[in-house]
Amino acid sequence: MTDTASFQHIMDALAANNGQSVDVTAGWAQGRALYGGLVAALAAEPMAMQLNPRRPIRSLLGNFVAPAPESELTIKTDILREGRAVVQTRADVLAGDQVCFTATAAFGDDRPAISVPADLVFDPPARDSVPPMQSGTRLLPGFLSNFDTHWTGGGIPMTNSKDRTTNMWVRHKSDMSAYPIAKIVGIADMPPPIMLCHYDRLVRASSMSWSLEFLVPPETVTTDWFFLDFTLEAAANGYSQQSGKIFAEDGTLVALSRQCMVYFE
Fold it and tell me: How far is CA 57 from CA 49, 62, 110, in A?
């Protein structure tokens, strides 16, 4: 990989290696670790690849065990149980012998059942109401150059704004249509810890665990732009909990996110 490798190119390389390894050498770090959305996608797509026939992903549960470095990463996957409708899988992302990210996922076919639609009002700020966020700005990680991002409200780190919410429009700059799961996973981790806007200086923070639930099969989502609406629910003793909603451009609620994060001075 070169330092200009896009999300798509990384996933292409992973697919070429049958979902077993990929070299991410530069350009995707945030601090000393790779962008968490990329690491999670490197686990999610191989879990889907091992299924025959393929089934829609319903949930992804992951733990960030250690910082994933810019290096060759190995992915090990297992099928834990395969039922008539649901398959439970596991994946580990390793750098050498060190597990960096471990995840389980549930894939399930549709079932005949009553539907209850999400009771949400979708009325986001227009993307044109704010300029795009520019990579290269002081203290912004370089991997942001792989995304188009319009930060439309609150939660900006180091502003001491004490916000409880943040929202943004985001899309991949590369074509992720061949990797619908990774497309959404890579977007869903974009909001930084909202707790960082409660400081007027840089503090260290990272995700510890992440739950992502898919309300519609990623294969049915054709939009490129997504609107992310995230809320800080609580924070104390160096641990924060934030949840989020990921919408497609047409207002479809695509996924629900929940993260336990650590922050420390």
Answer: 11, 14, 11
* 141 φ, ψ (degrees, to nearest 5): -65, 145
Residue 34 has φ and ψ, to the nearest 5°, of: -70, 155
Confidence band of 139 (pLDDT split at 50, 70, 90): low
* Of 216, 209, 190, 259, residue with least CA distance to 7: 190
What pLDDT sits at residue 32?
Answer: 83
Q: Quickly state the pLDDT bin for 134 (edges 50, 70, 90).
A: low
Instruction: Give the C-alpha separation, 54 to 240, whole Å.
Output: 35
> How many Cα atoms within 13 Å fall on the side-chain side of residue 260?
11
> Is the confidence at residue 180, as pLDDT, over 50?
yes
> Can you list the alpha helix ranges (DSSP code H) found in the chain?
7-16, 36-49, 180-188
Contact between 54 and 46 under an 8 Å Cβ cutoff? The reply is no
Query: How far apart are alpha carbons 30 and 10 in whole angstroms?
Result: 17
pLDDT band at 4 (very low <50, low <70, confident <90, very high): low
Question: What's this model's pTM, rounded to 2 decimal places?
Answer: 0.94
Burial class of residue 139 in the structure, from the number of CB atoms within 10 Å of its CB (0-12 exposed, 13-18 middle, 19+ buried)? exposed
Q: How far apart are alpha carbons 210 and 39 in whole angstroms?
A: 12
Is the Cβ–Cβ distance between 182 and 41 less than 8 Å? yes
